[in-house]
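Standup notes
- DV: blocked on the single-chain target, sequence here:
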Amino acid sequence: QVQLVESGGGLVQTGGSLRLSCAASGHTFTNYNMGWFRQAPGKEREFVAAISRSGGSPDYADSVKGRFTISGDNALNTVSLQMNSLKPEDTAVYYCHIHRTSTWGQRDYWGQGTQVTVSS
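- DV (later): unblocked, structure below
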């Protein structure tokens, strides 16, 4: 059973920093992306950043480019999201995410979420 466990959320003032981490277990996937989505109250869940198991440059939402950095270990079992210059509009529940592609199709896996609150 695939498990994604997030840590590192919390309360920070505008301009501050937080680091989120996500540890994945219970899978042997070889073709997948791992990263973060977020959902603010009353809004749709939106993509934040992701990194591919096969390599290449990370992908970021325009709203976080230059402020957030995603990184992963070599096996991509753990990803981290360094969030700098935080703004009140970054307030949301942040979800760790795996998008897997295989012969049988595609599937998404989600963590339980961690709250990030940026006070003005």
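- Follow-up: The mean pLDDT is 95.
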